[in-house]
Amino acid sequence: MRRQFVNDPEDVVPEALEGFAAAWPRHVTWNREPSYVLRAEPATDKVAVLSGGGSGHEPLHVGFVGRGMLDAAVPGAVFASPTAMQIRAASLAADTGRGVLHVVKNYTGDVLNFRIAGELLADEGVRSDIVLVDDDLATDTDDPDGPGRRGTAAVVAVEKVCGAAAERGADLPELVKLGRRVVAGSRTLSVALAAGAHPGQSRPSFELPEDRIEFGVGIHGERARERRAFGPRRALVPDMAAPLLRDLDLSRGDRVAVIVNGLGATHDLELYGLFGEVGKLLEEAGISVARSLVGSYVTSLDMAGCSVTLVRADDEFLDLWDAPVSTPALTW
Amino acid sequence: MADQISPAHADLWVRGFAAAITDADDHLTDLDRRSGDGDFGTNMVTGLRRALAALPEDPDSPGAPFQALSDTFLSHSGGTSGPLFGMWFRDFAKAGNGTPALTLAGVAEAAERGWATVTRLGSAKVGDRTMVDAIAPAAESLGRSAAEGRSLEEGLRKAAEAAESGAQGTSELLGRKGRTSYVGDAALGAPDPGAVAIGLFFRAAHASVTQGADGADEANGPG
User: Where is the DhaK domain (chain A) (predicted)?
Assistant: First the structure.
């Protein structure tokens, strides 16, 4: 049995957005209907960078609206895509005349609604293009007709780097190329120790025996394809990180950015411990941890679990990663 | 009998479609339970109720009712079938906007474009057990009827028959797209609810020019 701080579960998302905008008045404004979050001081002459997706992944995406990252974020209902008209309205509000980059996690509903929004924008004479983020190694298959890998925590790196490049004046084709390059060099694996519960529901979406973990979960509270034995993190981390190294074909001397991300109910004490294990493993493999991000950035409601993301890092990536950013959830 | 779709006919068409879907709600929901997650009928009914409230009282073109329908579906539906229907209606809006009436050739062109749009965005082909299995035969039938110079009534009747037959044919198909793809042959024997809805769409088109068409006929032209 779980308890949550909610009024009417139907109102969870708009009430959170109202509070979010009230808490960060110098960073963002919230448009209630259709719902989207914009920078409080919109940029005037740059490609707009916009992302969106279901709610329940906070601080993603609204937490990354601000200077150096997103110009707008479009939140759907919990775990449901925003609508095409929401995306269109947010894009029109954020466009400065130089076009709009849509950073989209690979889920059928998100992809469809962003593609439709792109067609609606074209009818209005507004250029847009999509960078599709599909970093989840657990959903890698050989089926060319399948939905492909899901998009998970690497989306933060894509938003950071593309946001920085847009701030420096990159045009839309350059941003698309950059974003796709970052995606191609990113892989993630996630594990869960316990499922989260939808707002207003007292039961989690699945139960797990104490000696098992879900290996290869996504960010929508669903089960993974595999259950594995639970153990100390020094035993779990190699299972998560080694397949990423293999799939990215990383070798001695390569540099990576590491994102160790909590899925909603995992404490920083655990996450930093996990990051330490990942760092040791990479050091042994001769791979340099060029940058790191540790915390809960892409969550799955209150799921207990974590994801490990590796992103190939070259000089351009590192320069853009280091560029100033000022958003509610990420600032340096 | 009307030889063109006036704004009043388009209004009747959209209202007739909404009424038919509402009547078929339980049936569509039941079909969707066998192939998806059982919310298709309810989502369509909710979308159409919103659309009816947004319909212009005195549409100035045959595109206007479809525009309201499309905008509503694209504003309120974050899933997959709702937005695809929104884009399907949009091609009828585009064909009918800024013109006093739609000919059979105009309807055929809208269906052809809508077919291309849904195929492009949904990546479903004929035989994938989706709405495309009803759209394709209806669009082809409309194109043939227009080329052969058939009447509007006959062209729409044949399109409705083609769409209904295509929808019925999905009973024999295994789903490859959308949620149906996860349930395999559990859905065999029941038609795809999206395809059935397309059948109802063209049946409503035919009814709009036959039933209650006298009033609409007189209004055809001056409005």
Answer: 8-330
